[in-house]
Design brief:
697 residues, mainly alpha
Length: 697
Amino acid sequence: MDPSASPSPSSRNPLSTVDVVVLVVYFLLILAVGLWSMWKTKRSTVDGYFLAGKNMTWWPVGASLFASNIGSGHFIGLAGSGAAAGIGAIAYEWNGIVMVLLLGWLFLPIYVASGVMTMPEYLQRRFGGRRTQIFIAVLSLFIYVFTKISVDMYAGALFIQLALQWNIYWAVLMLLSITAFYTVAGDFCSSGHLKVEKTSADAFRCSICACVTVGCSPGGLAAVIYTDAVQTAIMLAGSLTLMGFSFAEVGGWDALMDGYPKAVPSIRVPNSTCGIPRDDSFHIFRDPVTSDLPWPGVMIGMSIPSMWYWCSDQVIVQRSLSAKTLTHAKGGSLLAAYLKMLPFFIIMLPGMISRILYTDDVACADPDQCDQICGNPVGCSDTAYARLVMELLPAGLRGLMMAVMIAALMSSLTSIFNSASTIFTMDLWKTFRSRPSEWELMIVGRLFVLVLVVVSVLWIPIVQASQGGQLFIYIQSISTYLQPPVSIIFLAGCFWKRANEKGAFWGLVVGMLVGCIRMLLDFIYPAPLCYEDDDRPAVLKYVHYLYFSTLLSFITLVVVVVVSLATEEPKPEQISRLTWFTRFDPVEPSCISSVVTPGRMHGLEATGGERDSNRTASQQRSDSSVSAIHSQSRLTSALYWLCGMERRNEASDHPVTHPAPVEAISSLEEKPRPRLVVNVNLLICLSVTAFLVGYWA
C-alpha cells in the first residue's frame, strides 16, 4: 500500500452502534462472571479474599497469570516496538516463558512449604527482623504505582483517545474508577464479620454497593482470577482476529518480510538514520556492542529483572499460591508459558505490518510531522496497534477490540490493586497494628485500593508528559535499576542456607544505592534522539542498561555473600521449610501459632474452658442471628447476600495471624500421573521455546 494513500488520523472510522452493543455485552459478561464468583467462592476470610481460598485449578491460574502480565501496555508498547525496531523486544516475552516455569518448579514449592501469603512476609520469615520485609514492601508499592499502573493508564487511555477522541484525563479517570470498583466495591460490603443485626443504614450502604458493582465483579482474588480467565479468552479472540485482517491487508508473510525493510517514511531528518528500519530487525540476538539489545545482555542482564517479576513479584506469585495443589500451580505456569508464545504473532507482527501500511504516520521521522500526527515529536510508533484497529476492522469487530483493550487494562490493574492491597495490609499495616481483627484487615485492604486510585490520578500529568517511547524508556530504567538486587536477595534466600538477614539487608541497600545512582544519571542525561550527537558520560554511553543489570546483580551478590559469611549463621527456624533444600523438613510444634486464621478454625480444637466459652458465645450469637434473620425482608436479605454480608462467626474479632503450615507437607505431595503430565509438558514447552529463539536468533 502506498503510505501516502493512508487515511489521515482525523478520518478514522468512529465507533458505531454495533461497536457500542459489543462493549455493553462485554460488561454484562463480566457482571455475570462476577456474580458467579460471588456464589462459588467464600469471601469472608483473609484466605478467601487474598488467596481465593487456595482452591483454584490450573486453567484459571494460568489464564490469570497471562492476563495479569499482558496489559494494555503490551498491545501499545510491544506493537510500537515492533514498528520501530523489529522483533528484538520479543526477547522479553520469550525470556518470561523460562521464568514462569522456574516459578512453578523451583520457587513455588518453597513458598508453599513456608505457608506465606506475601513475598515480603517470606523474607521476614527467612531472614528474621522487619527491616528487609518493610524495605521490599515499600519498594514493591513504589514500583506498582509509578511504573505498572502508569504504563497501563497511559496505554489504555491512548487507545481510547485515538478511538473516541476523548480527553485523555477523562479516559484514564473512567478506566481507573471502573477498575477500582471492580476490585473493591462489592467486596467492601462482603464482610463476613458484620453482625447480622444490621440497621437500615447498613441495608442502604449495601444497596449502594450493589449499584456501583454493575459491570464489575465483587472483589477479592477469586473474582479477579475468574474474570481474568474470561478476559484472556476475549483478548485472544480479538487479537487473533486483528492479526488475520492485518496479514490479509499486507499480502501475507512474504509481503511482511519484504515490505518492512522498505518501510521508510517520505519525510526524514537529512543526514541521519531516523526512520530507516534496522538491518537486524528480524533478529533477536544482536551486536554485543553497537545494537539496542546486545545478545549477552539479553541472555543474562534481561533474565535477572525478569526473575524478579515472574518468581518473586506479589502480583504473579499470589495467583500461583491460590492453586489447590502444587501440580495445579505447575499446570497454571505451563498454560501461561504456552500463551506467552502468542504475543509475537498477535501483537508484535501486526505492529510491524502497521508500519508497512501506514509508513508516513506510524514511522514518522520528522519531529514536526510527528507532533502534527500524534502530538509526540519523539515518534508515533505507539499508535501502530490502534491504527490497525480503527482502519482495518469492520463495525462490531472494532467494538470487540475496544473490549480487548479494556479487558487487558482491567486485568492488569485489578491484579496490581489486589496484590498491592495485600502487601500493604499484611506487611505494613500489621507492623503498626500487631493484633488487628480480620474485619479490620479486609477494610484496610479495600481502602488502600482507593488510595492507589487517587495517587494514580494525580500521576496522570506525569504520564502524559512522558508519552511515547520516553515513557517506556523510563519504565525499563526502573525495572533494570531496581529489580536485580531484589532478585538476588530472593535467590540467596531460597537456594543458599547460609544467607542471613544482615547480608540480605546490606546487599539490598548497596544494590539499590548503585541502581538509583545510575537511574539518576539517566534522568539527568537522557538518551539522544536519532539525529542528535551522543555526548553523555562514558558510563551511560558505553555501558548498556542490560550490561549494567548484570554488573548490579554481581555487586549485590558479592555484598550478600561477604556480609553473610562475616556474621552469624541463620537460626534453624529461619531455614526450616524456607529453602529449596529444607522444604520437606517436618513441622515443629512450636511453629503452630496460638492464634489462627478464623477461616481455618475448623481444623483445630479449643481446649478446656476455652471450648466451653466459645460454645456459649456461639450459642448466644446463633440465637441473636436467628432472630435477626427472621426480621429481615427478602429484599434486604438479597442485598446482604449480594454484598457477602454473612453471619458473624465466633472468631471474627480475634486477632489474625497466619496459619501454621500444618498442611504444607500434603500440599507438596503430587499424584504420580498428573505430575508426569506436567513434567512431560515442561520438556515440550522448553523445546518449543528453544526452537523459536533459535529460529529468530
